[in-house]
Amino acid sequence: SYKLNLIAAFAALGQAVSKAVSYIFIKRSSNKIHFLTMIFWYALFGFLTTFIFTLTSFLSLRAAGKDTSWLLNKVDSRDYAFLVLISILGFTSQITLTKVLR
Asked: Can you give the chain as a three-state secondary structure string?
């Protein structure tokens, strides 16, 4: 329990620091780089870090002999619709945030 709380604390601290660094980067490079280019690289970096973390977590669960069948649930069209809606709203909010921070 203590180890999980420590991991969660470090994850929260790392997220806060990376968010602050990204805001500083957006502020300093707003006149040099187009805002859609910044959003693309921000999203790509976020996807890669999330994918690596998820893959290592999944593989460590498999290596420990834990049941991972619940991770591979089938999704229906309603779930896909919600995922598309979330991605559209996230993209528009990222555009708005980047434009405001300029």
From this structure: CHHHHHHHHHHHHHHHHHHHHHHHHHHHCCCCCCHHHHHHHHHHHHHHHHHHHHHHHHHHHHHCCCCCHHHHCCCCHHHHHHHHHHHHHHHHHHHHHHHHHC
Average pLDDT per block of 10 residues along the chain, 102 residues long = 78 84 78 81 82 82 79 78 91 85 72
Burial class (CB in 10 A: 0-12, 13-18, 19+), 26: buried
Spatial contact of 39 and 101, defined as CB atoms under 8 Å apart: no
Query: The pTM is what?
Result: 0.57
b/e 83-102 (16+ beta carbons within 10 angstroms → b): eeeeeeeeeeebeeebeeee
Cα separation, 102 vs 90, in Å, equals 18
